[in-house]
Design brief:
The chain is of the alpha/beta class. The protein has two domains: 72 residues, no CATH class; 213 residues, Alpha-Beta Complex (2-enoyl-CoA Hydratase, Chain A, domain 1), CATH 3.90.226.10. It has nine helices and 16 strands.
Length: 336
């Protein structure tokens, strides 16, 4: 006998779905069964094995021998964690009652390219507003917005206020460095102010079945312009670093479709698969990427997006109170 586990999730506000994962009815709660179920659901539902050139069968051969019926919970958790880390995916996580493991820490291998404390003391100073969750002020004759998390809501009133405040300025800087994502609806809410017509902003496919090639048809996703709101059609400079993930990575991908936008700084950190999730017999929960997201030209954004202009910030820059990434954006903005 088998039972059906329904896993429900939303896909970048374009559709919602429930998928069926067949597991044995009343599976035993032992280390081997828990490991096998985790490996199998990942095998059938994870979307990036081919893209990342990962042989998941060989991963099983490596990690399965480490698990026995005498493996304790902490040992099992650490084995599963090490196995999942191979995917290098910020949307993959594992959660128990004694630990939570997620993997957006790949940015630690790269320069930080952001120091909020220095930015606040030197560039924002005390003359800034916080409109909703948007830090905003005029810096050297250029409009500046810092948006630190797509978890924090952005309303139409917030955007109307900030864009109206900057309407006489030549350009706008949107700083999303260290933004680890959140709700993609705010990405759409922001970009609809920057476009004059319905715009193809990305594509996605959903891992629709257990076979390695079972994906839904590629779907084109569009952003629509919005009427009766304050719009912005002047140059925009988007500041990014390696700690830009998930919905913030999506926002960066969408901004690639807007002609007046220039991305400055470092690569984004990535995260181009919408997370789905399931629960193991022992009660541990886990998430995995269930879709593939690509630019209109087909480029897959899972591993991040390159800036149009690469600029780094060194520790010496921070010590000197200098943000070369922001300075470069201000320089280009003032040249307009």
């Amino acid at each position: 006998m088998k039972q059906i586990l329904y896993i429900c999730f939303g896909v970048l506000i374009s559709f919602a779905a429930c998928e069926e994962v067949l597991i044995e009815k009343n599976p035993s709660n032992d280390p081997v069964t828990n490991f096998d179920i985790l490996w199998r659901i990942m095998n059938e539902r994870y979307s990036f094995f081919e893209y990342k050139n990962i042989d998941w069968d060989s991963v099983y051969d490596e990690y399965r021998p480490l698990v026995s019926q005498s493996t304790n919970d902490v040992e099992l958790f650490d084995i599963m964690k090490d196995m999942l880390r191979i995917l290098e995916d910020g949307h993959v996580n594992l959660r128990s009652d004694f630990d939570i493991v997620r993997f957006p820490d790949l940015y630690l291998d790269y320069p930080q390219n952001f120091d909020r404390d220095m930015l606040e003391r030197v560039y924002w100073e005390k003359d800034y507003r916080i409109t909703g969750f948007l830090v905003n002020r005029e810096i050297q004759g250029v409009g500046y917005i810092y948006y630190g998390s797509f978890v924090a809501s952005v309303t139409d009133d917030d955007l109307d206020f900030v864009l109206s405040r900057f309407e006489d300025l030549p350009a706008l800087i949107i700083d999303i460095r260290n933004n680890e994502g959140g709700d993609p609806q705010y990405a759409f809410r922001m970009i609809e102010r920057l476009i004059s017509r319905r715009t193809h902003v990305y594509n996605h496919q959903f891992k629709s079945g257990p076979g390695p090639d079972e994906f839904s048809e590629l779907e084109e996703i569009y952003a629509n312009t919005k009427n009766n709101v304050v719009k912005w059609n002047k140059p925009v400079y988007l500041l990014t670093n390696r700690n830009v993930y998930s919905a913030a990575n999506l926002f960066t991908a969408m901004m690639k479709a807007v002609p007046q936008v220039t991305q400055i700084g470092d690569f984004t950190g990535g995260g181009g698969g919408v997370p789905a999730g399931a629960e193991l017999p022992n009660g541990w929960a886990f998430n995995y990427s269930s879709t593939i997201l690509s630019l209109p030209d087909g480029f897959i954004v899972e591993n991040g997006l390159a800036p149009d202009i690469f600029v780094e910030q060194t520790p010496q820059d921070v010590a000197n109170g200098v943000d070369p990434i922001l300075d470069r954006a201000i320089e280009l903005a003032k040249a307009n």
